[in-house]
């Protein structure tokens, strides 16, 4: 009997605690935005960015997610795997580089039989926002106070993320000085996660890295590098969703990557190796992994953790008959754009799916978090995101939402803190009224 798993599930059903001081967190983000001349209140512009409701995880599930992340890093280093997936990628993704790609996001649904890897993202948002939230934790009862005191401090997690950027730089430019970083996205000030760009800028600058938030069109290509308003840019922290840098407005970033004039991270190669959704069909097929020389224990782990995924091809009527078993995703897409549950689609949408570039993933519903507050009882869906680098999970956070896909439009939802229940005492939780 998995008592810790039962306890995590019970806490997610019954615990009505709140562990994030939302007013303090919002004040902190407001102050960060004011420092770059952005007026306004986060509670007005982003009312559902953060949730104060904690999500509890079984330690065994946490360990398995870490194992999956480490396994993926090992597989992507395999020459046979690289040859297979890069053959289907554009030439820009096949350029050899040492840097592995900063801030990868591994998204899981937590089921009773373990975590299920839904997808991997190379432009994973939210890490810097969740770091800020960690500094605004407010224990709700005595058992949780001791538990939080024993968990990793935000300062240590911050240092790990800074070290990630430094390591990326040293892999490509050993011994050279890093002069300037550009956080690059299309019209960044209009992006929903612009507040986290500002938090990232502040964090990196606290550690001596001059950092700018820029649109790709603001970058200039010089003979010996990239510049922003005359200042050298040695590293581009790439948040663009044009993963292979095809669009004309991203030409400077593309040239910087192709000509090795600046370190671009994450980059087209990392996207092809980790985040192309067609890879999920390979990762969920033990036979295909065996053909690539992947060891039995790793292929068994991935077969358990990655829901069966297939390219949408073949007889359309067969797919229509079986549609309720699948979740359809465009393999070129990102986030929840263009994704559909098979049991929700119309014939018209189905026609677009079979005519487009889609993969189908075996339907794997997310976990749930129930919570009762002053406005009544609500049930949220839960995704868990592991932010990782070089096979190591640096930070975990949840996204609470209602509806078909993750969003930041659910009252009470948003980024939520995640806690492994290892170290929590059942009797103390009962005494405190948590369960």
Rg on CA atoms, Å:
22 Å
> How many discrete domains?
1
Total strands: the figure is 18
- Low-confidence segments, given as residue ranges, are none
What does this structure look like?
The structure is a single chain. The chain is an alpha+beta fold. It has one domain. The chain contains 17 helices and 18 strands. The protein has helices spanning 3-14, 22-35, 42-45, 59-76, 79-86, 127-134, 142-150, 154-172, 194-206, 251-258, 268-275, 279-283, 286-291, 296-305, 316-321, 347-355, 426-432; strands at 55-57, 104-111, 114-121, 180-184, 210-214, 219-222, 225-228, 231-233, 235-238, 263-265, 309-311, 326-330, 340-341, 358-362, 367-373, 376-389, 392-401, 414-420. The strands form four sheets. Strands 1, 2, 3, 15, 16, 17 and 18 form a seven-stranded mixed beta sheet that branches. The protein has a four-stranded parallel beta sheet with strand order 5-4-9-10, sandwiched between helices. The longest helix has 19 residues, at 154-172. The radius of gyration is 22 Å and the shape is globular.
């Amino acid at each position: 009997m998995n008592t810790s798993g039962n306890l995590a599930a019970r806490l997610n059903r019954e615990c009505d605690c709140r562990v994030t001081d939302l007013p303090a967190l919002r004040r902190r983000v407001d102050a960060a935005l004011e420092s770059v001349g952005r007026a306004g209140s986060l509670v007005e512009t982003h009312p559902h960015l953060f949730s104060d409701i904690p999500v509890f995880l079984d330690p065994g599930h946490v360990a398995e997610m870490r194992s999956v992340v480490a396994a993926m890093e090992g597989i992507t280093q395999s020459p046979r795997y690289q040859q297979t997936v890069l053959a289907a990628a554009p030439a820009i993704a096949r350029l050899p580089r040492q840097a592995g790609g900063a801030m990868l996001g591994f998204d899981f649904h937590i089921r009773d039989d373990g975590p299920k890897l839904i997808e991997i993202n190379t432009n994973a948002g939210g890490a810097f926002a969740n770091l800020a939230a960690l500094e605004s934790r407010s224990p709700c009862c005595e058992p949780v106070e001791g538990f939080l005191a024993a968990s990793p401090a935000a300062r240590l997690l911050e240092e790990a993320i800074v070290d990630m950027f430094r390591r990326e730089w040293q892999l490509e430019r050993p011994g050279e000085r890093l002069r300037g970083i550009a956080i690059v996205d299309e019209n960044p000030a209009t992006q929903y996660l612009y507040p986290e760009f500002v938090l990232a800028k502040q964090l990196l600058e606290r550690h001596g890295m001059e950092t700018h938030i820029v649109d790709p069109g603001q970058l200039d290509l010089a003979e010996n590098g990239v510049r922003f308003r005359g200042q050298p840019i040695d590293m581009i922290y790439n948040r663009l969703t044009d993963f292979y840098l095809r669009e004309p407005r991203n030409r400077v970033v593309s040239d910087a990557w192709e000509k090795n004039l600046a370190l671009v991270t994450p980059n087209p190669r990392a996207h092809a190796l980790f985040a192309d959704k067609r890879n999920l069909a390979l990762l969920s097929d033990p036979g295909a992994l065996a053909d690539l020389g992947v060891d039995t224990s790793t292929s068994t782990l991935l077969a358990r953790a990655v829901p069966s995924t297939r390219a949408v091809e073949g007889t359309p009527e067969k797919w229509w008959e079986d549609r309720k078993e699948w979740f359809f995703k465009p393999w070129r897409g990102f986030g929840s754009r263009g994704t559909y549950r098979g049991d929700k689609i119309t014939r018209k949408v189905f026609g677009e799916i079979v005519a487009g570039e889609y993969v189908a993933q075996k339907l794997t519903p997310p976990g749930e978090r129930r919570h009762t507050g002053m406005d009544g009882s609500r049930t949220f869906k839960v995704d868990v995101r592991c932010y990782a680098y070089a096979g190591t999970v640096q930070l975990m956070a949840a996204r609470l939402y209602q509806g078909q896909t993750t969003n930041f439009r659910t009252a009470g939802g948003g980024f939520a803190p995640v806690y492994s229940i290892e170290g929590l005492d059942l009797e103390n939780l009962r005494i405190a009224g948590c369960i």
